[in-house]
Request: fold
Amino acid sequence: MVAISLPAWAQEFRADLSGQVVDEDGHPVARVEVDAKWGASSGATAVVYTDAAGHFQIAAIGEGRISLGLSKPGYFKIDNRVIELKPGANETTLTLNHENELQQQVQVVSKPTQIDPDTSSHQETLVQHEILNTPTPSSHNLQSSLITMPAVLQDASGNIHVAGARQSQTEILLDGFEINDPASGAFTSRLNIDSVQAATVETGAYSAAYAHAGAAVLSLDTINGDDKWRFGTTNFFPGVSFKQGTHFGNWFPRVTFSGPIKKRRAWFSEAISLQHSFGVVGGLPKGQDFVTQWMGDSLLRAQFMIAPRHIVQASFLYNRASSPQFGLGPFTPLSTTSDQESHRYFVSLKDQIWVGRTLFEVGGAVDTDTINNTPQGSAPYVANPSTASGDYFQSVADQSRRLQLLGNVTNDSLHLLGSHTLSAGWNWDGLDLSQQAARSSIEFLRADGTLADQATFAGPSAFHISNTQWGGYVQDLWHPVRTVAVSAGARFDWDHLVQQTLAQPRVAINWVPGSSGHTKFTVSRSEHYQPLNLSLAGQAFDQQRIDAFYSSNGLTPMGNPVVTTFLLPHSGLLQARSYNTTVEWNQEAFRGTFIGAAYILREGRDGPAWENQPSGAYLLESIRDDRFVSGEVWAHHTFGERADILVDYTRSRANTNAALDPSISSLIFAAQQPGPVVWDAPNRFLSRGWTALPWWDLLFSYFLEYRTGFPFSAINDQQQLVGAANSLRYPAYVSLNVGLEKRFHFHNHDWAFRISSINITDHSNPIAVVNNVDAPDYGFFSGGEGRGFTARLRLVTQH
Reply:
């Protein structure tokens, strides 16, 4: 928080104002832009931002009346709130409401971007109306909407990567608690997209409070109830598909409802979604080319105001999914798929207390994830150069769990050579993974049908592995002068599997020249800890794989079988970490027009990777060094309440010295080597926006993305690498989605109907390739979404 003192122009009157901004539930709102004006003759102004406890201060006010404007992306804007002042100290509390379409439409949303002088990280935020307005291939899927942010990329397998990082290097937070998969660190949780108030990505010099963010942070803030009963629904009519006959088609109904448990004291919200998908995969036999899936999720939240400065929050997230043809694709027919069943429970509790200008916070959460994969039958699994046949070779049951505890304290009352906001905290995480597996053989055939390799498995297939992580941090946000903010801090983390403690210093400097606050320069350097994933280390407790290779007649063995074992080193591992350097410029060039540029360099050190040994074993060693460098430029303009447009271009490189990721089910026989990562996209351009059309009150929206194609590797019949790792690339990806929405009144309700065209240019964007050089159709690309149309009907307001 910044306290601004301006020269007093009226000596006979002096007032100081201390305020707090809270939301509709009384919860403090941080980083709100407070624009103060007073003095009709002097035109005195001040712009300050609220701290973590929602506090702000304005000193040396020379008038008995002040006008305040409040703004933060994702909240309704407050203009010209007049407050009468008395000489001396004054206090006020202001309420800033979240954006909510069930509010009265006369309310004005805040501008989509702000230049916060205290924020040193590179931030991108999607607020609720941007999530709802932007047309994406799967508008019911949060991950599909996240890729409309420039820092977020989705690879060919559907995995999310932030700022060129591995999935597990981004810490995913749901209302302040980590929800990464306990075993793999991936983003696998699902929740009703209508419940998301804001999704914020941070890279660079983010807060030391984030325990497991090796490269980035993705924070999801969801709705909570207030004193008004609310109900919303979307896509409640089921779809019908006429492909290959008549079928129950795609159906993605969503329901949200919230209200008071006890007015002014306790509230709840419930967000439920159901997803039934039906699709046809080209190139497969009729009747065996469709895939169906059922998924459901429920997010229940409750908030209790024990006292005006004491709030308790609780949440329960449940996920369930059934995929009877999991893995069906153009090269993997029906018999090779698995029947996948999964469910997940996430429970959290948080207690927040404000004592004076100090915020205390403690909380805990439990996350349990269970996944079962069962093959369709027991026939041998056959891998041809271009496709597969038979039944899948492994049945796997995984259960993983995370128990997390945390505590934080923040205080902004220290004034020593300027103002300080001090924060400190701790975290403790207990994780475990249990696996049971049953595997049959894999037969790798050549193009002429002869046997090239037969893989079998031996040894125990059940294991249990656990880990304990704990850490703490201290951080100071110091304003030596009004135009400069220095953020300095350190984290300390310990990992039981690695048996090391890592200290991670970080520092960032913001400079906001002039009094307008329209320009900001940031430079930062930070070190970040990256925990070891249980799914990676767990391979050392799994089975051995034995590959027997055969000559061209498919009958004569070629030498002794190759036995592959995954091992952990006796001497232990080094603690993986990354060093982040950022330089950024932000500018409000004109009213409503924001432009900027950013340079990010992230250098990973001592990451774990499998290194093959002369004995045929793979040893997990701290040898992986990743490097991501990017330059980004952007422009974001809002035309009041009528239109909004974002344009962004990123030039980047994501490389590693260990490009291969072998596993017991997917081996490439080659030495570990450098290359680009499989989600590397050197050039990416995207634009999104919306505008109200002058005809029939239509709302037009679009999302455009162009990027370089992802890299992949080539292999031969004997699973050997051909050429350098990831030296080939998919074609360039181009997609333009457009949508038209019409709002109408029906039966005392306001509704919105939208029809969207996905990939309207019908550009070929393949997601699969035949990468076996011995296949007759080597280099054939397939999959991806062609031109498609989607429709959405949702309830907007109730009267």
Q: What stands out?
A: Helices lie at 128-133, 142-146, 534-537. The radius of gyration is 28 Å.
